[in-house]
């Protein structure tokens, strides 16, 4: 049984090493994406003026009035003092061509006191320019920038499959590390004075053992992040119900055309405030989101700057029919079925935000360790492969010498 597990571990590791190396390094960085982005791009994060900010709904109206080609799709409803208001935008449909207006950006930073656009960028663009580098790293983390092909997001599927293989390989690695009672001490040790190869081997084996639980958690949650609907939710539904949302259940979607004008944001906000009281949501409404293709509004509840949901299971959201304002469900952290709670925990666990700053520090360290484990695994494989080649070459050379000696003796 052990030889089979060794082969599986070897080939699973080789097959996923490059993907996990990239995911580990990028994951360590994006645990601090907001802070690093703000440090690199102060004009995108900090307001030019220090005057009293205008209401966010008014700022959105000004932006859309100034450039009728676009519509604001994600709007924070409050801004941290001194910060710019960052909005996501999409192009409207040109009535002449029936095609979306050409825009080379999907995110803007607005001065909250005037509504002037300070900066704009294409979030997730294939670019390592300073303005784009953090969104680039974020998208690289879960897609590797592989393309859509025939409606399939190849990168998202690939990284999800890597997560599945990683989950199985983590279990195999633990079995190999504790193959006998006598070996358990070695599986925790680091032989610092035994040379480079021994330390490399111990970094790979013992390093993985020390944080094995965190590695398995990262593997499982990575599958949940990338393949929630096609893989994870069907499995969870075998054991518990999962409350549907418009983004997971197409039957809940309004029957409106994508270019049909939605109801006003102000109307949705009135409904969202009532829902907040009915559902006993403590946090204020923090952002409103509009999905044009689905014709659905979402309202998130959090204080300014809390859009990532640091601490606990994240933020509450309510969903609304953008055609008539009818409620389309809600996600309230800590409430719902066992399946709901499991799904709510996936991003907070994967990002470390479930434990706040301490969790993010831990996830950064785990990300770096994932890169180390991937690199050391490849180094161990290459060394053993070279050793096998040298042994095979030595055997062939010895065989040729014996054959030559035999032929020489026979010819005498």
TrEMBL record:
<feature type="transmembrane region" description="Helical">
    <location>
        <begin position="154"/>
        <end position="178"/>
    </location>
</feature>
<feature type="transmembrane region" description="Helical">
    <location>
        <begin position="361"/>
        <end position="382"/>
    </location>
</feature>
<keyword id="KW-0472">Membrane</keyword>
<feature type="region of interest" description="Disordered">
    <location>
        <begin position="393"/>
        <end position="412"/>
    </location>
</feature>
<keyword id="KW-1133">Transmembrane helix</keyword>
<keyword id="KW-0812">Transmembrane</keyword>
<protein>
    <submittedName>
        <fullName>PepSY-associated TM helix domain protein</fullName>
    </submittedName>
</protein>
<feature type="compositionally biased region" description="Polar residues">
    <location>
        <begin position="403"/>
        <end position="412"/>
    </location>
</feature>
<feature type="transmembrane region" description="Helical">
    <location>
        <begin position="209"/>
        <end position="227"/>
    </location>
</feature>
<dbReference type="InterPro" id="IPR005625">
    <property type="entry name" value="PepSY-ass_TM"/>
</dbReference>
<feature type="transmembrane region" description="Helical">
    <location>
        <begin position="12"/>
        <end position="32"/>
    </location>
</feature>
<dbReference type="Pfam" id="PF03929">
    <property type="entry name" value="PepSY_TM"/>
</dbReference>
